[in-house]
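Journal club side-thread
Mid-discussion, someone asked how the predicted structure for our own chain would compare to the paper's figures. Pasting it here so we can look after the session.
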Amino acid sequence: MTATAGDLADRQALLLLAHMVEPGDRQVGRLVRRWGPVEAVRKLVDASSGLRQQESLAARLTGVEPREVESRATACGARVVTRVDREWPSQLDDLDAAAPYALWVAGAGDLRLAALRSVAIVGARACSMYGEEVARSWSAELAAEGWTVVSGGAFGIDAAAHRGALAAGGVTACILAGGVDVPYPRAHDALIARIADEGLVVSESPPGEAVRRQRFLSRNRLISALTRATVVVEAAERSGTMATAQAAVAMNRPLLAVPGPVTSPASTGCHRMVRDGEAVLAASIDDVLGLLDLGRDAGAPAKRSDERDALSAQERCVLDAMPGRGAVTTERLAVASGFAVLELLGSLGGLEATGWVQQDAQGWRLAARSGTRTTRTGRA
C-alpha cells in the first residue's frame, strides 16, 4: 500500500477494505462497525495490533493505491461506488457486518435508483423448460411495470430472467461473483455485455478478481439485499439459490416461491419453503405484483379474476384475443376474435371505458395495469 494509513479519508479506507477483505467477512465487518473504516484499516495494517488475520489481510494491499482504483475501474468500463457515495443503495446496510464496502458498477444507470424498485428472480441452473418460461415471461412483465430485474447471470433461471427483462425493454442488473471484467460463465459474455449496455453489471470484487465457490454464496446475499423481494422459480433443496432465499428471510424481505411438479427435484426447495411458511406461494405474476403493492389503493382492490367476471362473455373473448404486447388493428382483432367489426367495436368501447384496453395510432393494445379498474357502476 503506497498511501499511509494516517492520510486516509473514509472513502479511501473503504476502497482499501474492499481489496483486502473477502466479501461477506463478518469478523472484519464488526471491526469496521465498531471503529469506522479509517481506524479499522489502521489496525489491520499495523503489525503490532494483534488482530487475527492482520498479516494476510495487509499483504493483499501490496501495490494498491486508493487514487489509482478509480482509473483501473474506468479502464474496464466501470465506476466504483462506496458506502459514502450518493449512488450507494442504502438497503445494503441491512446486511450489517456482512455489508460490502464498495461496488464496481458497469452501466449508465444509477444503481441506487434502479434498486429502489427491484425484484430478484433466481433459480436453478439446470432448470426445466417450464421454469425457464416462467422466469422469462414474469421478468418481462415486471420490467414492463417499471421494476428492475436482478439476478446472477448464471445458466438457467438467471439468464432467462435477464433476457426477459431485456426483451421487454426494461432494466436488469447482473450481480457477478468475480470482477466486472471477468464475466462468468464465459458462455454468457455477450449477454453480460448487453446487460452492461442496457442495464447494470455489479460486483463487490475488484476488477480482475476470479470467481470462487465462496464468492458465489456471498454474491447471493447481495442479490437479496439489493431488492424489494426475491422470487425463487426453481430450486433444489440444497443449492446456491436456497442461500439467496435464506438471506432474504434473514433480512425479513418478502420471499416468493413458484410451485412445480411434485415429481421435479428442481422444485423441492420451493415446495419446502412454502410448506414451512418461509415463502409465499407465487402461482402467477399477479401474486408477485400484488405483494409488491404497486401503489394500489389501501381499500382492498378486487382481484383481476373477479374483475374479468364483471365483463360480458363477448368482452372476455375479445380480451383473450388481444396480443400480450404491442398493438393490433381492428381488422386483425376481428379475425382473431371471430366477431364482426361492428360487434368488436362495441366490446372494445366497453373495455376501453373500464381501463382494459387503449387505442393509439398503431391500433388497440392492452392498457397498463393500474391498482384498480373502473367497474360498470363507475366505482373503483
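Post-session note: Confidence is low (pLDDT under 50) at residues 1-7, 294-303, 370-380.
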